[in-house]
C-alpha cells in the first residue's frame, strides 16, 4: 500500500510498500487526474506544481498491469509571491540578498515565496517561522563567494539580564563562532523548503575548501537549523557546501524527503545530512554523493552534552541511495549525548569507503550510550568496508594523537568513558568489498556489549586494494580481511557468508562468548 509521506500546498511525496532497497521490483507510471506525469522505479517519488487547497486523484500503474489509486488534498496557503516582485534579478550576476531577505521578512504566515527559474546570487539569509520557500525547476539559490561579507555568529551570547547563554553557532560538536549559513533558521517553527530547484553553497568557487583551518570562524553550512521545529525539505538539490550541507542542531521533527545532496568526492568535510542532538528526524528517499559522510548522526562532544544533554532520538533512515563518501550512514564521532531509537532500513550504498559506520573514542563520556539501533535490509556495492565500529577514532579533536586516545592499556573507567550496547546487522548483501568484511574494534576497558551479524553475504573484489578500514592512530592497511571483532563481550554470527577473504574468514579476540555458525573459532 503506497503511503503519502508529505502533502503541502504545491507538492507531495509518496513511498511504495516494497521489500527491496531503494528501488521497486518493477517500473511504474504515475497519473495525476488521468494524465501521466512521470515514470520511475525508485521506492519514493514526488509530484510538484500542484495547486493549493485542491483534491487530486493519483494512479500508480505498474509494469505488471497492477494499479493503485490514492486521493490527496493539498494544503491551503495564505499567498504565493514571486521573489522577483521584491526586485530579485535572478541573473547570477547581481546580488539578490536584500530582495530575498525582504521577501522572507514580509511574507505573511502560511505564505509561499516562489523562486522562478534563474540563478539568485546571495549572501546568508535568515529563515523565519510559518513560511514555505519553493525553488522551481531551473531555480538556483547560489551562495556568494565573498567570505569577508558573511556575518560571523558567536557560539553563544549572554543574556543581558540573566547572564545565561543563548546558543547560536556550533561546528563539530562544540559551541564556537561560525560564519552564518546560506539558509539559517534559529528558534523557528513550521518551515518548508520544496521544489525541483537547487540550493548551492558554491564551495568550489570560493576559498571555503582551501586553508579553512586558518579562518577566524568555522565554515558555514548550506542549511543550518538551530533549535527549530517542524521543518520539511522536499525534493530540492543541495550542493557544494562550504562544509556540511544540512545540519539540524538540537531541533525536533525534521523531514528530508526525496532530496539530492551532492558535492565532489574530494571536497573536505562536505557531509550531506548531519542531525545533531535532534529528536524525530526522517531521511527518506534521498540520494547522496559527497566528499565525507553521507549521513552522520551526532549528539555533541563532552562539554556540549554536559551542558544540554540531548540524545539523538527517534531517527528513521529509509529507501536512500548513498554514492561515494567516507561513510554511508555514520554514528558519531560527536556522540557524547548518546544515540537511541535509530532505524536504518531499505538503503543502497554504492562506492562509499564504509557502509554502516560507528565511530567514537575515549573522552566522549558516560552519557555516550547507543541503544535500540536497527540496521536491516541493506544492499552494498563496491563499499570498501561494509561494517565498521571504531572506538579509537582519531580525528576532529585537539588531543587526537595523545596516548589517552591510542593506548591499548585497560584504563580506569570514569565519567569520560563511553559505552556501546548491542548492535544487530541483518539482511545485507555486499559485493565488491576490498578492505574488510567488517571491522569492529571495541574499547579495552569498556567492551561493546553485543554484536549480532545475521543473514549477510559479503564478497570481495578480485582486484581489491589495501587501505585502512578505520581511522585510528597506528592503523594498518588491510586487504580482503574477513570478519574482525575485538573487545566485544557477546558475538552472534548466523547465516553469514564471506567469499574471497585472504586468510581466516573470522578473527575474534577479547570476548566473553561467541556463537559463529559455519566459522572456525580459535
Strands, helices and their partners?
Blueprint: E1 3-7, E2 12-15, E3 23-32, E4 35-42, E5 44-47, E6 55-62, E7 67-73, E8 79-82, E9 91-95, H1 97-106, E10 111-115, E11 118-122, E12 125-126, E13 131-135, E14 139-143, E15 152-153, E16 156-158, E17 165-167, E18 170-171, E19 174-175, E20 178-179, E21 183-186, E22 189-195, E23 198-200, E24 223-226, E25 229-234, E26 237-239, E27 246-249, E28 252-257, E29 260-262, E30 279-284, E31 287-289, E32 295-297, H2 302-308, E33 312-318, E34 321-323, E35 327-332, E36 339-350, E37 354-359, E38 369-381, E39 385-390, H3 403-406, E40 419-420, E41 422-433, E42 436-441, E43 448-460, E44 481-486, E45 488-499, E46 506-509, E47 513-516
Parallel strand pairs: 8-10, 9-11, 10-13, 11-14, 12-21, 13-22, 14-23, 21-24, 22-25, 23-26, 24-27, 25-28, 26-29, 28-30, 29-31, 30-33, 31-34, 32-35, 33-36, 34-36, 35-37, 36-38, 37-39, 38-40, 38-41, 39-42, 41-43, 42-44, 43-45, 44-46, 45-47
Antiparallel strand pairs: 1-2, 2-5, 3-4, 3-6, 6-7, 15-20, 16-17, 18-19
How is this structure best described in words?
It contains 3 helices and 47 strands. The protein is mostly beta strands and 522 residues long. It is globular and about 70 Å long. The termini are far apart.
